[in-house]
Design goal:
Elements: H1 3-15, H2 22-31, E1 38-42, E2 55-59, E3 62-68, H3 76-87, E4 91-92, E5 95-97, E6 103-107, E7 121-123, H4 128-134, H5 141-154, E8 158-160, H6 175-179, H7 183-186, H8 191-194, E9 197-198, H9 200-206, E10 214-217, H10 224-236, E11 243-247, H11 250-263, E12 271-275, H12 276-287, H13 295-309, H14 320-331, H15 339-344, H16 357-378, H17 383-396, E13 405-409, H18 416-425, E14 434-438, E15 462-464, E16 467-472, H19 473-480, E17 503-506, E18 510-516, H20 521-531, E19 539-543, H21 546-558, E20 563-565, E21 577-581, E22 590-598, H22 607-625, E23 627-636
Parallel strand pairs: 3-6, 6-7, 10-14, 10-15, 11-12, 11-13, 13-14, 16-17, 18-23, 19-21, 19-22, 20-21, 22-23
Antiparallel strand pairs: 1-2, 1-8, 2-3, 4-5, 5-9
Helix pairs in contact: 1-2, 9-10, 12-17, 13-16, 17-18, 19-22
Length: about 650
Amino acid sequence: MTTDSWRGRVAEALGRVPGLTSRQRSCLAEALLEPDRRLLIHRNVAHPPDDHAHALLVCGTGLFALRFAQDVPARLDGIRRHAEARFGKVQFGREKVVAHDVQLVLLVPGEIGVAADGRFALAGPADLDRVIRTRHRQLRPSRVHAIASTVADQTLDYDLLEIEEPDAAPALLDRSDVTAPQRDAALRRPFQHWMTFLDPDQEALVSRTYTGPARLTGPAGTGKTVVALHRMARQAKRSTGRQLYTTFVKTLANCQETHFRQLAPGTERHVQFAGLHAWAMDFLGQRIAPPRLDPRGADRVFGRVWDRARADFETIEPHDSYWREEIDRVIKGREINDLDVYLRAERNGRNGIRLDDVQRADVWHKLYVPYVRDMRTLGISDYSDVIAIALAEIRNEPLAQPYDAVVVDEVQDMTLAGLRLAHAIAGGDGSSPLLLLGDGQQQVYAGGWRMADAGITLRGRGEILRVNYRNRRRVWENAAGIDAVNALGDFDGDGGVALRDADVTLPDGAVDIWRGPDQYLESALVTGIHECGKPLSDIAVLTRTNQEVDRLIGALDAVGIATLPLTDFNGTPSAAVKVGTVHRAKGIDFAAVFHPTWSDDDRPRTGASRERAELADRQKLVAITRARDYAWIGIRDDRLEADHT
């Protein structure tokens, strides 16, 4: 069908609708510029109730409620609730339409002196098609037809505009063809699909009201972040109150912001995404002179302190990283400023080595005190200092403009001080609008804490998600077989739900395991990427260290495989393999993941070696569960050298 022919049929159909003015017909015709859009028009379109839309539009970019207006309607919230009620009843198998996906669009005659703010969009003359196209495409044509038909069948307020199809046009899919799919078929697509459809169990959590701090926990892939983002979007479309999404690693915040802006466009001014350290630096910059953050300088300072003191500690644990973590994750991480407090402190997650009072005093006097003194002499700060200074400042003077919601993702990787800061940002009391997301099996940093240590009481405001929607079965089976110890528990002492106990929805998938000497890793990795059958945009290489990141980026670039460091990734698709540490990949997923690792040490796990092994197991679990369809595990073992010569 030609464009002119389609437009003629649209004009003819709209001409049969009584009560529309010529301007309204022209505007609604713009809503139907593409054949795969479906329009439901109010039965009393000339004078609809104040809380009804003039029309509902279903198209590839989502759901829209259209209201002709001279200004922002007084019943704006009522219009949204009415439209959401119409779409909220639509369900296909285990797929429930996300009602708050509806974008409310005010169709105005010209400038009205009001800017869109996330609760609604504005479309002037000949501007509606641009507003429609602004949103990211989400729906297949078959789903567009099915949703529109279902709403028309279930409501008495709107009629589906019937546009005569040409004789040669193929018949549309029968309703039964598109309303029957079950969960396993529905969940084959990545995050974009979740912008419009949720499992009914998840959809119920999106609208649940909490009267204080709450938490969502569950194994990898169970949709904790998806539920949280939908909760934020739902609130943003009802209120211009401030919301904050924060986490320990900035890459995750950047990626989730990209997804959220597609889910709730126009909310930039009042919904903020920031890593916790970035938020703290910005906050301090507005209050006082911000600290001079110098992570590399801090590394050099600790290196010098370690060189002077290593003889006193190497017999206990020779790895200097262990002692640096003792400062960052235990002493500073738990806001310990006095030796007596350190002597009594529970070293959660650090009991592989039990330090007696004499050893703790040595840590204090020979490592911690010299490190802090030398840092102050240079006038520089580390990441822990940034959290401590921000926490002291917000305790001294709480936020003048509080947040309506604060979401903390991957909370298990926060230090206790970081968790306390997040709670203070949310108000710091029993009614704080704080939502914590996390899973102890995915903890990839040393240390730990109990919720009570942060002064947070959940009082039953907790949900456990148990259905894995991300990983195909073969990928899940491999990850679930890893003995990843959950030292944190379900945030408050019980064991939580392990990945192996999750319900898996997606069939099939594939896992390949390569074994060989380290010197052959690059060639094996290149071969695997070429043979995995996935586009570069859907592939990630996840390593344990930044040194390995640099090494493998160099190897892939050398053979013409485009790469993008995860540190520069914000969730926007790009035709390059993402390469970064497991820590940087937290909360993100890819179609295919390549994870180089090392063969297990056959020696018994004791002391700090046990802690490192348990941490490595959790990191491996996190790496593999980033993969939706395919995982490649490169196990390096230099004992196999003879087999490769």
